[in-house]
Please model this.
Amino acid sequence: MYPTNRTVAVLGSTGTQGAWVIKALIASGKFDVRAVTRNPSPDKAQAVEKLGCKVVKGDLKDRASLEKAFEGCEAVFAVTLGGAPGDEVVQGRNITDAAKAKAAELVSYSSLPSAKKISGGKYVKLATHEDKADVEAYLKS
Model:
């Protein structure tokens, strides 16, 4: 079931992006996949496990839970969840800090560019774009 010693943690594993990343990683035959979800017991998480990966608990608002989920992972595929402005920044920083603490070599973050920046200041109220761009900058620092 787990073909390698190279492990990738996938956040958003019960959503569309995460599920497709899991399927692609498993199909490659090059990685063990660790699906990270807030609640590993619902039907969605069990369906992900049936794809051939291990499902573990991890909450984007709880850095310690992410550190535990990332233990021994070579890479992390990360998505953040929308909400109030600033929520994604907190989540993204937790992901980044946990991945660094566990020495993950790569973090692939599903981001968006700053709408304010690419529009020359025309679009300034797209919080999701700005939050994701802030996380991307933090990740690169």
